[in-house]
Amino acid sequence: MRKSKALSASAAVILMAVLAACSSTSGGQASTRTASKKTVSQVTIGFDQRELDAPYYTAMVDEAKQIASQQGFKLDVQNASSDPVTQVNQVQTMIAQGVNLVVVNAVSPQAEKTQLTRLAKKVPLMFIDTGIPGVGFTTVQSDNVAIGTLSGELTAARIGKGKSVNIAILNGGPTDEIVGPDRQKGFLAGLADGGVTAHIVASAAADYTEDMAVPATQDILSAHPNVNLIVGLNDSMTLGALKVLQERHDTKVLVAAPADGQKQALQAIESGGCHGQYISTGLNSPALATVKVFQIAVSVTTGKSAPASYPKLSYTKAAGINCDNVSHYYNPSSVF
Amino acid sequence: MKRPLAAESPPPGSPSGAGTGPEQRRRDERSSSQLPWPRLLSWAKLQYPLAILAALGVLGIALSEAFWTSQNLTDLIEQSAVIGIVSLAELIVVITGGIDISVGSIVGLSAVLSAGVFHGSSLVLAILVGVGVGAALGAVNGTLIAYRGLEPFIVTLGMLSLARGLVYAYTRGVPVTPRAGNFGAPGSNAIGGFPVLGIIWIATAVLMAYLLYRTVFGRRLYAIGSNSRAAYSSGVPVRRTLLIVYLLAGLLAGLSGFLLSSYLGSGTPTAGTSYELDAIAAVVIGGARLSGGYGRVFGVVVGSLIFGVINNLLVLLNVSTYYQEVVSGGLILVAVTLAASRRSLN
């Protein structure tokens, strides 16, 4: 018994000695990575996506892979599966692996702030879609308040000036600290601009996915039969709500979303027309954001521009979409 | 579920598989004067978790140049430490033949409470709150299991939901940020390049090893796990021991919760989700049996490292995100099968 304990202890000591001996090997890695100018084909960019359970996120990843193969840089994609600890570990490992820049779509800004601030010192770090204020050199996202407002105004036009409406909101859950609240704020402001009085009677979490929106909508409709309008803070959730309404043959309750311009939503708007159930949505193209992000990423890693030269926050183009302009945006063969 | 201890099978937990009769004593006396290699070799042959870890290590070194660097290895320790301590908590419960699936939720509740109670303005207070919450929940588990005779799986299943529910009730789903400036010190600092998290993990492992192998309490755990009726008949205070075991497991889970908050710099409501599954898998890969009576600390430490290495390699080797869970699940099945088949050979 004593001998095996001694052997276990010595195994642990050997392990630690090996670790200590290795400490001389990778000291120079960080400095060589940022200093030298590279060609695009020498660049490796890491991309940690917050989840892959909704088309918005998978489309972003697909777009990124397309850009990578077109431009010739190496892209490492990881899926944080909506877990902040997994995301931190994955970013840490990608940096140890030697990527030249990391793009992150943050799962939970407050939970990851400390560790990502620490990691941002080693390698240029930027955010797409959901950023962490004060961390990284830039965040590229859609202006959630602006697209929410534009979509809200279109919905108000349909409901009618001076009318009042009972709203149920489907949101992204408790860790949706920035994007969801901004979209909601914008949408309600848009409704107010259009002269509509909004009463929020219910609010439920559906994690930005269609399948979680279905039970959430069923519960809302059971608890609040007086709801006239269901607003999912993204198209996936709103489509889930629409599915429930269609199953119940309920054509009275309307739906709308402040974002994203998902093609299934655009199809619903187009087929329903100006008296259909799906009133409006906002343009939040994952492709636009991805193109801009990787433009910046490649420029920084090849030494053409410095991280400090970018504004902390930059927005992609905003637009509201309804039956009048949907044909301009609807493309059945697009990924998203 | 628990098999009675057969006369020929080895005493619980001892790796050499030999008895403790006069023949063994003579063999010991002879071998102490010889070179240690034969004993080292026979010890090594039984360390199948270490073999699996070594195999993964070789795979990592061969396929990725970033794997065997001090940066990545220290990252690995940092990433595995919290689960490592939770796995130690699970080990002591499993040795007694029980199971605790509430450890993940206890991690979550102590993570948010240590960051939020008294606004997290004192590091020492935060540690005490974290550990205290864990111990309290563990004591509830232990009381229901030991003194009410309820099934460990069901009791800890209820505690899993209760504790996670309390987390959401307390935080309303929003991460809790502590005020203490040094709150993140245990989680982020390093001494001589080695993460403090790792040091705490190793210290906890050494303490658990001492508890299990050198104290009467530890002996009692193995006795209860092998045959609780025989243990009771021999005078082991079974109920009190079980209560203490679940309390201790909760305490360790509480410590991990605090450490996780310290690492992240805030108490996140999703902290510890599914940690119980990883802990149980690490414990089984490390050589313990869910039926009780078996389990070594070193095996569990290696088991936790195996998990950390698998997750690390999945990123380093750029395994497609759509296949990562397939690969990780497959590797775990292989590890568990190897563990079970090697055990049955002995």
Structure notes:
The complex is a heterodimer of chains A (336) and B (346). Chain A is of the alpha/beta class. Chain A has helices spanning 2-22, 29-35, 55-71, 84-97, 109-120, 144-159, 179-193, 210-223, 235-247, 263-272, 286-301, 326-329; strands spanning 44-49, 74-79, 101-104, 125-128, 138-142, 164-171, 197-205, 229-232, 254-256, 281-282, 313-316, 320-321. Chain A folds into two domains: 32-136 and 287-316, Response regulator (Rossmann fold, 3-Layer(aba) Sandwich); 144-283 and 320-329, Response regulator (Rossmann fold, 3-Layer(aba) Sandwich), CATH 3.40.50. A six-stranded parallel beta sheet of chain A has the order 2-1-3-4-5-11, with helices on both faces. The model of chain A is unreliable at 20-35 (pLDDT under 50). With 346 residues, chain B is an all-alpha fold. Chain B has a single domain, classed as Orthogonal Bundle (ABC transporter involved in vitamin B12 uptake, BtuC). Chain B has helices spanning 22-32, 37-46, 48-63, 70-95, 103-116, 123-147, 152-171, 185-188, 196-214, 216-226, 228-233, 238-264, 275-285, 297-316, 324-345, and strands spanning 190-191, 194-195. Classes of the chains: A alpha/beta (336), B mainly alpha (346). At the A-B interface, helix 1, strand 2, helix 4 and helix 5 of A face helix 2, helix 4, helix 9, helix 12 and helix 14 of B.
